[in-house]
Specification:
Residues 39-134 form the EXPERA domain. This is Emopamil-binding protein-like isoform X2. It is a multi-pass membrane protein. The protein has 134 residues and is an all-alpha fold. It has one domain (10-124). 67% of the residues lie in helices and 0% in strands. Helix 1 (9-32) packs across helix 2 and helix 2 (38-67) packs antiparallel against helix 4 (96-121). The termini are far apart.
Length: 134
């Protein structure tokens, strides 16, 4: 029997980048949450990671898609999306549905993560005023 599937350089680099963003997001969130409860620290770590993913990974995808296409782009981020494109070719060449959803994700979700981080760090009144079903 042969060896199992090998992890290519692009896939390995992508995993390393995602792990680095996770580490950076957790470190930043825990730093911002110093002196707060575990729930706030956990939320801040997640929100910092979430914002980093939207702005560092998905933002460049939108830019590369709007200025050309992923299939012909160079660089670490492009190689990450080229790897993703092996499973679904819509990610390699401009697909209006994919790009428009990514624009919404970057702008709305990324911005919302920043607003929530701000609300927790500055202890804004609106951060815990949601009353679900009451």
């Amino acid at each position: 029997m042969g060896a199992g599937p090998e992890l290519g350089a692009a896939a390995g680099g992508s995993l390393l980048l995602c792990a680095s963003l996770l580490g950076a997001g957790c470190a930043l969130g825990l730093s911002l949450g110093r002196g707060r409860g575990a729930a706030d620290r956990g939320a801040l770590a997640w929100l910092c990671y979430d914002a980093l993913v939207h702005f560092v990974l998905e933002g460049p995808f939108v830019y590369l898609s709007l200025t050309g296409n992923i299939a012909n782009s160079d660089g670490l981020i492009a190689s990450l999306w080229q790897e993703y494109g092996k499973a679904d070719a819509r990610w390699l060449n401009f697909d209006p549905t994919i790009v428009s959803l990514e624009i919404l994700t970057v702008v709305l979700d990324g911005s919302l993560a920043l607003v929530l981080i701000y609300a927790i760090v500055k202890e804004k009144y609106y951060r815990d005023k949601v009353t679900w079903g009451k």
